[in-house]
Amino acid sequence: MGFDFSTLGGNQAITVNLVNELSLFFDIHLIIACKFNKNLYKVNDSIKLGIFNFSENSRLRDVFLVSFFKILKYLISNKIEIVISSGSMGIPFVFLLKIFAKLKLIRCKIIFWEHESISKRGFKSMLFRKLAVISCDKIITVSDKILLDYVKIFKIKSNKIIRIYNPIDKPKIIEYDPNTKSLMSAGRLEKEKGFLMAIEIANIIFKKHKDWKWNIYGNGTQKNSLVEKIKEYKLEKNLILKCNFKNIKEEYKKHSIFVLTSQREGFPLVLLEAKANLLPIVSFNCPHGPSEIVKNEINGFLIDNYDINNMANKIDFLIENLNIRNNFSKKCILDFEKFEKDKIVKKWIELFNNI
C-alpha cells in the first residue's frame, strides 16, 4: 500500500515494477490511492488491486486513515500475511494496524519500505519514522546511508533493518550517442528536485554553449514559477520543460549527459535509468542516493550540494571533452549487476520467506 498512483513518479514506478515481479511467486494485493479513480500504472492481471479514491484537496495520509476499517476488513477477509507500507504516507495506518495485531484481531507481519532520505527532516516527519520503527517487524531502506541514519537516530537493532536497492532491468545492448548536444533531467517539478537551481546553472552554461539544449521531463507545482524564471533569463531556446511525454525510458537515448539537481533523494530511479542508458551523470551529492550510484570521476561527477558554479563547470567540462564523455559512458555498467532486477527480487523473496 502507498503512493498516489494518479501521478507519475519514481517511487510509484519502482513499486509497480517490484510487485509485478513478486506476483510470479506470491499472491499479491496492491492497495493504492488515486485521484478520481485515475491509476496511471499497469499491474499484472494476477494482482488484486484495491483503489481508494480521493479529491484534489485531500491529503493522501488522511485517505488511508479514513479508510482504515475498510482496509482492515479487506486484510482480514483475504487473510493477508504480510503488509508493506511503501513510503511514509501509510505509517499512521500501520501504527493502528499494529495495535490490532497485538490484540490478535489480525495476524500479519508489517514492513515499512523507506524510499527517502531522512536527513534534515522536520519533527513531524521524524515522529512518523519513529512510529514505523515501533510498529513494523522490518524496515527496508533503499540505500546504505539511509540505513545508517536509521541505526544512528533510532537505535534500531541490525536484525530489524535491511537495505535492498531499487530494481532495474538489465541494460539492453545500446550505443551511446555523445553528439546529441543535449542535457537531460527528470523528476517532479517540486522544490526538493532543485530545478530553480538548474536554471541558474543553465544561465552559466548557455552563455558559452548556445548550440546545446537542456530538456527537463516532469510536472508539478513549480511549473509556472520555472517557466517565469526561464523567461526572465531568456533561456527559452535552450532550457525546455517537457511536461507531456509518454514513456520517459525512451527519452534517455536522445541525450548526451544526465544532470540531477535534487536537494534530497532516497535512491533516485532516474540515475539508475541514466546509467542503464550509458549516460555520463553530473549530480549533486545530496543525501543520500547519488553516491551509491555514481562513481565520481569514473562514470560521472558528484558535486557538493548547492554548489551551482562547480556543477556548471563540470557540465561545461563534459560538453567540451568528447573523449571523457565516451569514457564515462563505457564505465556506466561496471557495478550495475548489484541493481539488476533478478538479484533484487531474490532478496525480497528471501525476506518474505524468513520474516
UniProtKB/TrEMBL annotation:
Domain Glycosyl transferase family as annotated: residue spans: 176-331
InterPro entries: Glyco_trans_1, Glyco_trans_4-like_N
Domain of life: Bacteria
Transmembrane segment boundaries: none
Any Pfam family hit: Glyco_transf_4
Start and end residues of each Glycosyltransferase subfamily 4-like N-terminal domain: 14-169
GO MF, any single term: glycosyltransferase activity
Protein name: Glycosyltransferase family 4 protein
Species per Swiss-Prot/TrEMBL record: Candidatus Improbicoccus pseudotrichonymphae
